[in-house]
Amino acid sequence: QVQLQESGPGLVKPSQTLSLTCTVSGGSITTNYYYWSWIRQPPGKGLEWMGAIAYSGSTYYSPSLKSRTSISRDTSKNQFTLQLSSVTPEDTAVYYCARGGSRYDYWGQGTQVTVSS
């Protein structure tokens, strides 16, 4: 059973960088041919795919967020990380990590991130 768990600060100030980590257990993030995604849901809105990192380490980003987003991984810890720079209150959302690139079979529980001064 694959499990994912998001961690990181729940409150970030405007203009700062949001950083979240997803710790994966029950499966390796380097296993062929899985992708590992970050997805968010702002209040009252739908799910938004932000980007993904592949089993190979290749990264893929939403065009609308590409300039501010970076996804990396630590294979020794079986973790992958999201960084979103220059945040604004519009980036307030529940952030999820999930396995998959466009369809997802395992999800983390989600973590609320609020952008506020």
Features:
117 residues, mainly beta, seven-stranded mixed β-sheet, four-stranded antiparallel β-sheet, 11 strands, globular
Characterise the protein shown here:
With 117 residues, this protein is mainly β. The chain is 0% helix and 50% strand. The chain is built from no helices and eleven strands. It has strands spanning 3-7, 11-12, 18-25, 35-41, 48-54, 59-61, 69-74, 79-84, 93-99, 106-107, 111-115. Strands 2, 4, 5, 6, 9, 10 and 11 form a seven-stranded mixed sheet that branches. It has a four-stranded antiparallel sheet with strand order 1-3-8-7, with no helix packed on it. The radius of gyration is 13 Å and the shape is globular. The termini are far apart.
